[in-house]
Amino acid sequence: MGEEGEAVAEGNGGLIVESGERNSTWPAMRFDVSPYRTHHFSKQFRTSRNPNNFLKGLKWSPDGSCFLSSSEDNTLSLFYLPQDGEESNSNGVTIPEEDSYGASLLVNEGESVYDFCWYPYMSVSDPLTCVFATTTRDHPIHLWDSSSGELRCTYRAYDAMDEITAAFSVGFNPHGNKIFAGYNSSIRVFDLHRPGRDFGQYSTLQKNKEGQAGILSTLAFSPTNSGMLAVGSYGQTSGIYREDNMELLYVLHGQEGGVTHVQFSKDGNYLYTGGRKDPYILCWDMRKSVEIVYKLYRATENTNQRVFFDIEPCGRHLGTGGQDGLVHMYDLQTGNWVSGYQAASDTVNAFSFHPYLPMAATSSGHRRFTIPDDDDEDKNHVQLKADENCVSLWSFYLTPEESTSDEHNNGLGANSHHQNITGEDKNV
Question: Mind listing the pLDDT tens digit for each residue in 353-405?
Fold first, then answer.
């Protein structure tokens, strides 16, 4: 569908934005006990065409009905959560030879997928809202229909030579009416209802060379509608901007590698950043962003791979994977390690909490290299275990007590004592 294709049905006023916040009571999950695996997927990601195919990340839909995964073969796979949800296999399952079930939808992109995101008000009960955006190498931003797999429309950016340039990161603003995309030293903003080549462009590098330079690889909006946007750069910086006019508020320095993931705390007062070849997730206080509050360790010091972390809906705990195949849980009020469990035998590159249920999803995999051997063709094929290059769903045990309102709303307490992973004072 070309630029004339409509992203939304204009006669209905566009994508429907719900008024007010969802009223939900999140279950209090136990993190001192390892969760149990309820579903597992691996074989469908391994094809004869590309036996070395591996997962690159996954994200739950905002309504929690399904999740979307991205893999090295330029394919996005959509899996719906079964009717019984987390109750399936309540005693846990061993790693099976066969997948729990197949993907409901496959979207094949022409080139490597850089980033993807869900429309923030997506609801499976309203097909008009069931869309997600992707950005791929040498292609414009695509808006896909998650119900049919059809391309709704494209959003195209052009460089100085009037050639299409691809975004490296993409995200919807909290109101769901604009698409923000990160490029090389610039942000472009598209109106969701006006597909095509109309956009606003904002340079992140000022004339005095201050600001953010390099590839803008990740972005995130504050969940409290404060109008703040965080942008991570391969230049090892994270920038905080105003959403309405892209005014640069401040730049955070401290990541050892290029920033690959940024995420705000649930109350919007803290920002968490992670980078490639950097073993620490850094916590920044948005009210006094001159120093790091604490660092959270993960095994990512030897990989350029993007490793996604996530914060539970209550805002109290953060989960992250790493090269060791472990998922680590941290208490965000103290910065202390809480627990960890083995999720895969290779790199866990994404961990994502379900938005409403006591569940999480993990994806794993990394690129493997073989040495060609003319004498033994079997050595040229990658031999994978069942818990490598895979997706797993996990259910957490629940606590008998209800969490306090501070835990549900703030993550970090205003007067909490912060420690880094070594147990030393918070000054790092």
Answer: 999 999 999 999 988 776 665 555 555 566 778 788 999 999 999 987 544 44
111 vs 142: CA distance, rounded Å? 12
Q: What angle do CA 264, 268, 273 make, to 5 degrees?
A: 25
> Does residue 278 fall inside a structural domain?
yes
- State the Cα–Cα distance between residues 116 and 267, nearest whole angstrom: 24
Report pLDDT digits (tens) over 335-347.
999 999 999 999 9
CA distances in angstroms from 186 to 145, 204, 233, 332, 357, listed in the order given? 28, 5, 10, 32, 37
d(CA 291, CA 289): 6
How many distinct helices (H) and strands (E) make up the chain?
Answer: 1, 30
Tens of pLDDT along 14-64? 343 333 344 456 678 999 999 999 999 999 998 767 777 899 999 999 999
Best CA proximity match to 114, nearest among 77, 145, 139, 147: 139
**What mean pLDDT comes out for the span 89-118?**
87
- Among 104-108, 260-264, 422-426, the least confident range: 422-426
28, part of any domain: no
* Domain tally, the chain: 1
Question: What is the C-alpha separation between 63 and 403, in angstroms, rounded?
Answer: 23
Q: Is residue 21 part of a domain?
A: no
Distance in angstroms (rounded) separating the CA atoms of residues 174 and 268: 13
In a domain, 323, yes or no: yes
pTM score, whole prediction: 0.86
Domain CATH code at residue 254: 2.130.10.10
DSSP class of residue 247 equals: -
